[in-house]
Specification:
The chain is mainly beta. It has one domain: Mitogen Ypm (Jelly Rolls). Helices cover about 10% and strands about 65% of the residues. A four-stranded antiparallel beta sheet has the order 1-8-3-6, with no helix packed on it. The chain has a four-stranded antiparallel beta sheet with strand order 2-7-4-5, with no helix packed on it. A hairpin with a 2-residue loop joins strand 4 and strand 5.
């Protein structure tokens, strides 16, 4: 019983995490994006770290819908940075990493962690 209580106490305190993506290299065409889809079992937040070797116009966009809340937010991280997004429990969380380049594509290294 103590183990179960400790497990859920850790969730309440946002002390649990899952690595969804670990330093994956992705490429897109001009004004393109790469996306992943996951599910979130608990309320928490998503941390996306991006480093771009080819552009300063990098963004991260997270889209989900849960409990009557529609969430769609974009954070511009430039050539590299970290963006943090809240999430409610939902079966579909879409995470996009893209670029704003008009003529050339881009390559980024991406890590995504779900904290709950």
């Amino acid at each position: 019983m103590v183990g179960v209580v400790a497990y859920y106490t850790a969730i309440i305190n946002l002390e649990k995490s899952e690595t969804w993506v670990s330093q994956q290299v992705v490429s897109q065409s001009a004004r393109g994006y790469y996306s992943w889809i996951f599910s979130a079992s608990y309320a928490g937040y998503i941390v996306v770290t991006v480093h771009s070797s080819t552009t300063s116009g990098t963004y991260v966009r997270v889209i989900w819908s849960s409990h009557g809340v529609d969430y769609d937010n974009t954070v511009y991280v430039g050539a590299g940075g970290t963006a943090v997004f809240p999430v409610l429990p939902c079966s579909r969380v879409e995470i996009r990493v893209g670029n704003t380049n008009l003529l050339s594509g881009a390559t980024q290294t991406v890590s995504i962690t779900y904290r709950y």
